[in-house]
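FAQ: What does the model actually see?

It sees only this:
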Amino acid sequence: MATFNTESSNLDIKEDIQQCNDVEGADNISRSAISSNNAVNRENTRYIPKQKRLKMIGENNKHNKESTTTKRKVTIRKIVAAIIVGITLLIIAISLPVTIMNNSPTTTEETTTFDTGLCDIIANDTCYWFEIHDLHNVPYEAAEEICLNKTLVPAHFETESIYNAVVEKMRMKYNKIDVDFWTGIIVNTKTGAITSQDSFIKWGPETPILGGTSNLPNVFLYVYYNPDVVGMVNMTPDINLDGVICQRRV
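And it is asked to produce this:
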C-alpha cells in the first residue's frame, strides 16, 4: 500500500503559487512601466504641435519684419528718385528761358559773323556794299532781299562826306556807265519828311516829288558818268533799277 507525502505536496503547491505571484507581479510592473511610458509619450505628443506653432509664428514674424524692411527701403529709394527727378526738372525749367534768351537773335547784325572784306566802303563804323546788275531788273522788294542775304539792310548816309565817298566809289567801280540804285531812305510825300532824321539828302533837279495823291516813298540814288549828273529821286517801289546799296554796323 502506497504512502502519500502530504507535506511535500503542500510545499510544491506553495512554490507554484509563489512563482505565479512572481510572474503576475512582474507582469504588473511591466504593465505599469508601459502605462507610464505611454503617458510620457502622450504628454510629449501634446506639446509638439505647440512648439511647431511657436516656431512658425517666430518665422512668420521674422518674415514680416524682413518684408517691412524691404518695403521701407523700396519706398525710400522711390522718394529719393522722385526728389532727384524733381530737382533736375526744376533746373531745366530755370535754365531753359535763360538759354532761349541768350540764343534769341535781337538783330541780324548781333548774331551773324560778318566779313568786312565784303565792304566797298567803311565809314563811321558802318560797312557799305553795292550790288549792281547789267539790266534794270531790281525793284525795291528785290533790293531788300539782296541786302538781307548778306545780313545787311538798304543804306542811308549819315553825313555828306559819306555820301560823297559813295558817289566817288561808284564812279570808280563802274567807270563809264550810268547807274541808279535803291537806298533805304523813305520820304513822306505829303510833308517831305524822311524816315531817318540823320540821313543826308541831296535831291536831284525837280525833286522830291510831293503831293497828297503821289505814291513815291522810296528814294534811289543815280550816279552818271557825267560828274554833273548825280542826285536822289523819290519813286514808286515797283520800278526796276540797276541795283542797291546796303549797309550794316561793323
